[in-house]
Amino acid sequence: MNTGRRVTIYDVARRAGVSPSTVSRSLSRPGRVSAATLKIVYEAIEELGYAAGPTVAQSEAKTRTIAFSVQRLSNPIYEDILSGFRDNFPDSYVPVVLDAGENAEREAANIIQILPHVDGLIMSSSLLTESQIANIHKQKPTVLVQRRINGIPSVMFDMVPGVGQLMDLFAAHGHEDLLYVSGPEESWTSGIRWRALQTEANKRDLRISRSAPFEPNVVSGFEAVRAWQGTKATGIVAFNDIQAAGLLHGLRRAGVRVPDDVSVASFDNTIAAVVAQVPLTSIGGSNYDVGRHAAELLRDHLRRRNDDVPEIVLPMKTHVRMSVGKAPNN
């Protein structure tokens, strides 16, 4: 919708068929609004191109502020990514970190509220739809981390070499059946990790199955032990190191020894993998370089928005530790 005037919260309310206070609550406290209502409100926001803010003139003014949207700030990958960004972005800009809590509705609400007040945006492992992200990019310069959408600059990991190394390791230790403990259903990253695992396992005649979606946290990792029990898998690949740490605790509680009874590997290669009760074999690259390249892309994008849409792809490799061993005989 483009009528030449600024879209207001009242326009959104009329389109969604709800009260203005419900729209306001959906943006400020999405946890207090039902999922069905949030869906209707966000669809109206996207359709109308609504951006919260005082005036168009104010929203176009230079604020010297950059928003950095992450899925969960407690995940140690973000310490290195943010360090790489801060060290390589002009000091005259202030980064504001938005924690989505692994929730697409909260991520959308965070960005809608802050978008008029920032000059640019970094979106890391976003759970939003392509159309939502494209709409954000139309309003402010945006760089994606670990997400690929045509027309938007991005920084990605090429995980295929690292996944191939992990499959070689499993094969060398006699494993034939593997299980991938999936990340959230809406996670783009989980999807591409699964496709890489499938492809590289098939090349080596390894069988790999995928669990139901689990959240990327310790509690869900602990609960994921039940997804493994009853399978033939002698090796497990977790969505990330945090989830794998919970998985290790759950296996230990169940009396399962790692790696004697089952081998465990994961993604991201963070400090969580190093200090786990059994140090984790993990696929990862330089998260600092991710932040550095994101800073460079956004800096260039702020200087000149043009048709050049770079995509930077960084390597990943398998970091071998104690959690992968020989497949058990039985």
Task: Explain how this protein is built.
- The protein has 14 helices and 12 strands.
- The chain has 330 residues and is of the alpha/beta class.
- The longest helix has 17 residues, at 287-303.
- Strands 2-1-3-4-5-11 form a 6-stranded parallel beta sheet, with helices on both faces.
- It has helices at 9-16, 20-28, 35-48, 56-60, 77-87, 104-114, 130-139, 160-172, 188-203, 218-223, 225-228, 241-253, 271-274, 287-303; strands at residues 65-70, 94-99, 120-124, 142-145, 154-158, 177-181, 207-210, 235-238, 263-267, 281-284, 311-315, 317-319.
- It folds into 3 domains: 1-58, 434 Repressor (Amino-terminal Domain); 65-157 and 287-314, Rossmann fold, CATH 3.40.50; 158-285, Response regulator (Rossmann fold).
- The model is unreliable at 54-61 (pLDDT under 50).
Quick summary of this structure?
The protein has 14 helices and 12 strands.
Secondary-structure topology with pairs:
Blueprint: H1 9-16, H2 20-28, H3 35-48, H4 56-60, E1 65-70, H5 77-87, E2 94-99, H6 104-114, E3 120-124, H7 130-139, E4 142-145, E5 154-158, H8 160-172, E6 177-181, H9 188-203, E7 207-210, H10 218-223, H11 225-228, E8 235-238, H12 241-253, E9 263-267, H13 271-274, E10 281-284, H14 287-303, E11 311-315, E12 317-319
Parallel strand pairs: 1-2, 1-3, 3-4, 4-5, 5-11, 6-7, 6-8, 8-9, 9-10
Antiparallel strand pairs: 10-12
